Task: structure prediction
Amino acid sequence: MSIPSAQPRNDRQLVFTSSQAARYVGVSLATVRRWTDAGHIECYRTPGGQRRFSRAQLDDFIASMQRNGGTSEDTAVERRDAQVA
Result:
């Protein structure tokens, strides 16, 4: 009899869909798509054209965000918002 793992599913998951990646990173699906299109997050495409993200790529992205304090896109939005205020 095997005992089920107490780890959440995404702790074992190695490949994520766009929606799963968005939840994992903590942003919206639109943001993940935008960041991927801008080259901030790497992914590969299935033969059907759908994005797939490896857990290692997402973890690297999260680490780089923590080191760099955000993407250049985030910084541009913050500057724009500051100018409006």
About this structure: The domain at 12-84 is CATH 1.10.1660.10 (Multidrug-efflux Transporter Regulator; Chain: A; Domain 2). Residues 1-8, 75-85 have pLDDT under 50 and may be disordered.
